[in-house]
Amino acid sequence: MEFRPLSPEIEWAQADPDSELFFPPVHGGGTLVFSVNRWPGELFTLWMPENVHAAGVHPLKVREGTWERDENRLVIRGQSLSNDGTALCAYVGEVQPAPRGLRLALRIRNLTSRPWSDPWVNICLKLAHAPSFDDPRLARTFVRFAGRWTPLAEKALLDHRNHYRIVLTELPCASMIEHLSAENIMTTERADHNLVAVSDPGGGRSVGVFSREAVVLVFNGSERVRCVHSNPRAVPYGVPPGGEATAESYLLFVDAPPASLADLVDLGFGTSRDRLEPDNHLT
Question: What is the dihedral of CA 277, 232, 208, 165, to 10 degrees?
């Protein structure tokens, strides 16, 4: 892989499908690998979008292009497909430098003949190749419950080592439960913050995923994955045939403990909702 600068802090590469960094191996094109210059040896894999969902609409395949550099951002265009190959939605994804990390933005278009309700997006950050943030026991993976940032290991009632598990937020939606299944809810408590923060063993560095309107937090402890999600709802909540919706998330990389990362979010990081510019390439 050839790493290229995206910002003074972050370099990126398109993952080689033959590399163990590529994820998932059965899909094409959309996997990005990032390195943070001040954190040598840590590689972060982004799969965006893993898929796009709405009530009764759960695509099983993606048809993706490759990421392309467009001035100070990376752009990908693709479609989500049904199992028989029918295109259900088109999307444009963007990754842009942001303070202390990256802004992820997605614009989706409903290609079906019926209205969508409760659209949301699955965005995956894989930590399996970032040794300092590979946390298979969830002892350094922090979620806030009842105002307290808590290692998820203290709350988890289900084993996540070979399967994804979920934590409900304060804004869950029926289409998310429909797809991810209530059987995978790993704690009876709901998160009261949409940030997931993972610290290094010393607690001095943190990686975060955050969406202002997260419908669910997701964790998969499989050895080749070790991923975390703060999956965003797309707005508007109703999308007519041919209509569009947008979703937004952030990846954060800070030299601070998780509580300090949470303070940065609470001070206003990520509170703006810039809409993507119109794009004539969506079909």
Answer: -150
Amino acid at 46: L
Give the global pTM.
0.90
How far is CA 97 from its chain centroid? 16
In which element (H, E) is residue 126 found?
A: strand 120-126
Q: Tokens 């499908």 appear where?
A: 17
Nearest-angstrom CA–CA distance, 279 and 160: 39
pLDDT tens figures, 142-191: 999 999 999 999 999 998 888 899 999 998 888 899 889 999 999 999 99
Cis peptide before 241 (omega within 30 of 0): no
d(CA 143, CA 213): 15
- Rg of the chain over Cα atoms, rounded to whole angstroms, equals 17
Domains annotated for the chain, with CATH where assigned, are 4-266 (2.70.98)
178: helix, strand or coil:
helix
**What tokens does 53 get?**
């969902």
